[in-house]
Amino acid sequence: MVPVLVAAWAYSAYPFALALPSERTEAILAGMVAAFSFFGCVPHEVWWDNPTTVVRQILKGRERRPNERYAALASHYAFDPLFCMPARGNEKSHAENRVKELQRQWATPVPQAADLDALNRWLRTCCLREAGHTVTGRDETVGQRFQRDQAEAQTLPPTPFDACIVQAGLVNKYQTVCFDRNRYSVPRCWAFKSVTIKGYIDAVEVVASGRVVARHRRSYDNDEQILDPLHYLAALGRRPAALDHAPVLRDWQLPASFERLRQALERQHGDRPGARQYIRVLQLLAEHPLERVRQAVERCLGKPALQAERVISEVQRLAASQSNGEADAAGKSLATPLDQYQVCRPDLGRFDALLGEGE
């Protein structure tokens, strides 16, 4: 079973559907952002039943205390967040009937898809196809009526809403921070410090000092550790034994040329000194992309007097070469031939006028 967010316009009945990994607040936020993008506009009102992921507290009458992030979404898109009365089926009959229609039309038989992305591509096709249908009892198609909905709706803001939940966190001595019963790694310099955690439907970001310091895939399991080997490179210089004993580093999947480099360094310099030199090469990955370091490693393999300094120099040479190539390409794209410039000859008589004024 996969949860699907379904949104539909009351007048035109034009639908949007998106399969999501959960029914949590961040999933609802992501679904609403995707819906507004799909419709290309924003309604003046958005009605919900009273799910706990959207409504914090049901107050008197129609008063609600919405989830803080849903309230931020409503403010960003400038729509009025409205809610049905509890146990009033007549207020949500349109939405429930629309869901049943979509179940009959799109989920009978149950569609088969490799993953959520494939399922959502299929759902999007189904939604677009609805524009050509005519609802029973009406003379116009869904798409024709939706044109009127669009004409009355609000325009999209310049930037989409940041569809995530936000919470504070404290990094422990193992360089991890807890979010949703799992732990995510951060660089060593942020250990024992307070950070902000942003949870998306597919990713977790750790923010400190106003910038993202770590980004991981989102896990929906429990008690899992999602660790980035790059975050532990700084500690390797002080604890080289972790290279073979810490799972995050021991199980690191690197190109085969890296293992050949380590073997060559240990043959030439001995096990421990060779491992330390290999660690210095790994630490290049904190500042350079993997492909650049791989190229440098492969160019240095087989050369006499192999050591970390040779690989470091080759990486720096590649970085400078690639940087110059990008600058040349940008310069060529912006360069203008000199013969296209026209410079007016100066009127030297103006200097005579200035001298005359001075006298």
Give a written overview of the molecule.
The protein has 359 residues and is of the alpha+beta class. It has three domains: 4-152, Ribonuclease H-like superfamily/Ribonuclease H (Nucleotidyltransferase, domain 5), CATH 3.30.420.10; 165-227, no CATH class; 232-334, no CATH class. Helices cover 42% and strands 17% of the residues. The protein contains 13 helices and 13 strands. Helix 9 packs antiparallel against helix 10 (271-282), helix 10 packs parallel to helix 12 and helix 11 packs across helix 12. The longest helix has 27 residues, at 308-334. The protein is extended, with a radius of gyration of 30 Å.
Secondary structure: helix percent: 40-55%
> CATH topology of the largest domain, what is it called?
Nucleotidyltransferase, domain 5
Mean pLDDT: 89
Biggest beta sheet summary: 4 strands, antiparallel
Main β-sheet, spatial strand arrangement: 7-10-11-12
- Which structural category do the helix and sheet elements fall into? alpha+beta
Q: Identify the CATH homologous superfamily of the largest domain.
A: Ribonuclease H-like superfamily/Ribonuclease H
Which CATH architecture of the largest domain would you pick? 2-Layer Sandwich
* β-strand number: 13
Overall shape = extended
What number of structural domains do the residues give? 3
* Unreliable residue stretches: none
Strand coverage percent:
15-25%
Helix-strand topology string? EEHEEEHEHHHEEEEEEEHHHHHHHH
List strands and helices in order, with pairings.
Elements lengths: L3 E5 L6 E5 L5 H15 L5 E4 L6 E4 L5 E3 L1 H10 L2 E4 L9 H14 L9 H15 L11 H11 L12 E6 L5 E4 L2 E4 L8 E6 L3 E6 L2 E7 L7 E2 L6 H4 L5 H4 L1 H4 L5 H14 L1 H12 L7 H11 L7 H27 L14 H10 L1
Parallel strand pairs: 3-6, 9-13
Antiparallel strand pairs: 1-2, 4-5, 7-10, 8-9, 10-11, 11-12
